[in-house]
Structures are given as C-alpha cells and as structure tokens.
Amino acid sequence: MNVRTPSKAPENEARAVLHGALIRYRVMAYTTAVLLIVLVFVGVPLQLAAGRPRVVNVVGTVHGFCYIVYLFTAFDLTRKLHLTFGKMVLVLLAGTVPFCAIVAERLLTRFYERSTADLSLAPLEPGIHAG
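Given the sequence above, the corresponding structure tokens read:
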C-alpha cells in the first residue's frame, strides 16, 4: 500500500523566500549604515576642516546608490513580513540616519525569528535562533 504524506514544499519554499529577503536586507542595511557612518563622521569633517571633499564625493555617491538598493530590499522584506505602513516607512528611513539602519536590522531580524517561531518553523540558518 502506498501512503502519501502531505508535502511541506510550499511551506519550505515560502520560508526560503522570506529568509532570502531577510539576508538581502541585512547585507544592504549594514552596507548602507557603514557608508553613512563613514560619510558623516569621516567625510564631512575632512571636507569642512581640511577642505578635502574627495571622501564625501566618493562615499556619498556610493551610499546614494546603495540606499536605493536598500529601499527595494527593505520594502520587499517589510511587505513579506506584513508590517504596518508606519513601521515600513520607519525601516525605509532608517538608512538616512547614522546607526539607525543597524538598529532597524536587529529589530527586523528579531521580528523574523518570532514570526518563524510562531509558525513553528525552524530557522533555515543555524546562527539564527528563535526566542
């Protein structure tokens, strides 16, 4: 007799998609945050005090391009996590204030962990623990 068990493929696929969105967001959050910190705390003082605008020109441009990618990845993740509009806007704006993208990343990662724990899904990555 051939007994078929229900497949968990859709559940695992949805979890993999959500986890992928989280990883993309985390990479862009840290990249954007570090570039903004360098821009504000190194580039601007060099430009104002020493008259050397090179760091501001280069890092500012790179941060601008990375922030656009950050917006797309943050929007994608917040929609997949079903966050409210207000929380989504706060996450999107976090890339414009030094250190805020790092704080937002930690909060969203914890929210993801709680969401996967609530759905009784084990995290995909051993380094991410629910709870």
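The longest helix spans residues 9-50. Try to locate this feature in the token string yourself.
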